[in-house]
Amino acid sequence: MALKRLVNNEKKMRRDVDFARAYKGIMDDYVKKGYARRLEPQEVQRFQEGKLWYLPHFGVKNPYQPGQNRLVFDATAKGNGVSLNSALMKGPQRYKPLPAVLFHFREGAVGVCADIKEMFHQVLMQPQDRSSQRFLWKNGDDQREPDVYEMQVMTFGAASSPCSEVYVKTVNASQYSSTDPRAALAIKEYHYVDDYIDSFTSEEEAIAVSTRFGKCGQSVEPT
C-alpha cells in the first residue's frame, strides 16, 4: 500500500517540477532537523514485535498560501483492513476548551497570539515505537528501490499525537512553575492545542512574558 502510494507520488512529481522540488525540499529538511532518519539495510530487519508499519505520504498545497506545501503522513490508510490509527488510542482530550481560552483573551487590554512551531515534531518518539512510523522514499529517482526511513518524532495525523503533545508540553512547563510561574501558566492554561492566545494589562508585560517562552520549552512564532 505504501509503495503504491509512493509510485503515484512520483508520477505527480514528474508532471509538476515545482511540486517535486518542494517535496524533496521538505524531505531534506526533515532529515536535516532529525525528524526522520534513513535506515541502513541491516536496520530494516530490526523492529519491535507488533510495531512495524509503513506510512504512505503525500504533499498538499495550501490554496491560501501559494508556495507553501505540507507533507502529510496518512495514518488512516489501510492495508489488509488495518491502519496505524486503528491500532492507536486517542487518549483523553487534555487541551483547554476553546471558549475558556477565548474568554481569558478578552480580559486584558493587550492581546498576544502565537503558535508552536511544528508542534508535533517537537516531541521525540520512544525508540521502540519508531518502527511503526516507517516510510519509503526515493528522492524522486524512480529507477531504483526505495530507501526505508523512520520518523523520530510524532506525526501530524496520528490519533495519539494531540493528547501526547499536550501532556509533554504541560510537563515541560511545570518544570518552570517555581522560577517563571507566569510563563508556565501561559503554556498550560492559555493554549488551544498549538495556538497560544493570551492577554495582558500592558505592552511591557506582554513582551516580557512572550519572550520568556523559550526558557519553558516552547518554540513559538508570533502571529
Provide a quick synopsis of the model.
With 223 residues, this protein is α+β, with helices and mostly antiparallel strands. The protein has helices spanning 2-15, 17-33, 41-44, 98-105, 161-174, 181-189, 203-210, and strands at 36-38, 57-61, 69-73, 110-116, 134-137, 147-151, 191-192, 195-200, 220-222. The strands form 3 sheets. It has a 4-stranded antiparallel beta sheet with strand order 7-8-4-9. It has a 3-stranded antiparallel beta sheet with strand order 1-6-5.
List the helices and strands and how they pair.
Blueprint: H1 2-15, H2 17-33, E1 36-38, H3 41-44, E2 57-61, E3 69-73, H4 98-105, E4 110-116, E5 134-137, E6 147-151, H5 161-174, H6 181-189, E7 191-192, E8 195-200, H7 203-210, E9 220-222
Antiparallel strand pairs: 1-6, 2-3, 4-8, 4-9, 5-6, 7-8
Structure in words:
There is one protein chain. It is built from seven helices and nine strands, in the order ααβαββαβββααββαβ. The protein has helices at 2-15, 17-33, 41-44, 98-105, 161-174, 181-189, 203-210, and strands at residues 36-38, 57-61, 69-73, 110-116, 134-137, 147-151, 191-192, 195-200, 220-222. With 223 residues, it is an alpha+beta fold. The chain has a four-stranded antiparallel sheet with strand order 7-8-4-9.
